[in-house]
Amino acid sequence: MRDAIEKLGAVTLFVVREMGRMLIFILYSLYIIVRDPGKPIHIFKQVHFIGAKSLFVIFLTAAFTGMVLGLQGYYTLAKFGSEGLLGSAVALSLIRELGPVLSALMVTGRAGSAITAEIGIKKITEQIDALKTMALEPFKYLVSPKVLGALVALPLLCAIFDVVGIYGGYLVGVKLLGVNKGAYFYQMEKSVEWKDVWSGIVKSVSFGAIISWVCCYKGYYAGHGAEGVSRATTEAVVMASVLVLVWDYFLTSVML
Amino acid sequence: MIKLVEVEKSFGSQVVLDRLSVEIPPGKITAVIGPSGEGKSVLLKHMIGLLQPDAGKVYVEGEDITVMRRRELNRVRERFGMLFQNAALFDSMSVFENVAFPLEEKTRLSSYEIRDKVHEALEHVGLRGVDDKFPDELSGGMKKRVGLARALLLNPRIILFDEPTTGLDPIICRAIHQLIKDTHSRFGFTAVIVSHEIPEIFDISDYVAMLYRGRIIEMGTPEEIQRSEHPVVKQFISGSLEGPIHFV
After folding, report:
1. ipTM
2. pTM
3. In chain B, which end has fewer C-beta atoms inside a 10 angstrom radius, N or C?
């Protein structure tokens, strides 16, 4: 019994300490971003790495997501004889929900893991210490460009995801299943409001913050050796993905 | 001058530095020797504030760095250069970019001036034509030399060397020692060298300190250390298996 309570206490302490460290980490990175954001070229490089290099995987997942939405949407709507609404069903689910979330999950897997591994390796090979001994601020070179890069890249990727997905739905709904082309786009235009687009943008910006925060943090505090880095990478991907989904729920319930 | 007073440091239950006190004389080369895993690198990292002691004080030129805020600490670190065990070069940058990095970030020199300074520093450590190579294309000895060039570039008053020659062949090892000696007599910085290279390290150092079980058990000129009657020092220098130092 006493053992169990001690274990519970230890776990609680660990979790609270970890949360505190994460909070300090993000606050300190924001402070560094405000004080000295560094050279724009470093931020552009991160936008390129997180954004441009994720384009292929975003195209692919977006196209198939849109296509399956077309199929499923058609199947459901046909039951009520309202296939004409397919366009708005596809567009609303993509813009409000699937675009931001799926693009964030893909970026976590592709770029987030790479961010953790990169920072983790820099840590275990003492490159972070080397920066400190030169009286330079490691956050300025390792963390803040990545956070800023993710904040820019995620909404752009999400927008591309939405557009490609809508055309995927068009391909299946209109070309394959014979929904009227005019109805597909007309219904979409009628039902999608600025508020829906806005909520998608807000979501994907906040997902960008979550991914870069968690992945940089995990890399910066990676354990020892190759094993430490690999564990940090796994933890970063799992934690970022879970946080994205949890945060998505709360954000949706607030912004609905 | 660097002075550590009663410094304590443990990692978990393992005590690494046990009320350690030492004074590093200015403008001289001081070698810290001792068995592997005794905390020599930990000692070095305390001198530049990369690690904080659990208790005790660390003075750099009279200022206690253990109570400093980040900004003040950075001001003190401006006086330091450090060569890490594995050179700690930035792996995504070429040799040229590595050496140029502190200049680009901390000075307002033009790119021509930076290029000249970098080439001068690289030539000084005997490297030519490696500008565009990346760290993983270099041998261990070359990496250390690039690291040394980078550490020397901002004319630091204190340079810390963390095992500058470990894992190198005897000739390169001697060459690096000679390089340290030459640059020292040219620039006159205070040097602290953590090393296992016995007896070679005695040729280049002015003082030698022996670290054992978390304390400096003896410090003196190389001659004094070599004549030492302390059983631990005696055993370590002779490399004998018989004596108070036990290996698992």
Report:
1. 0.89
2. 0.88
3. C
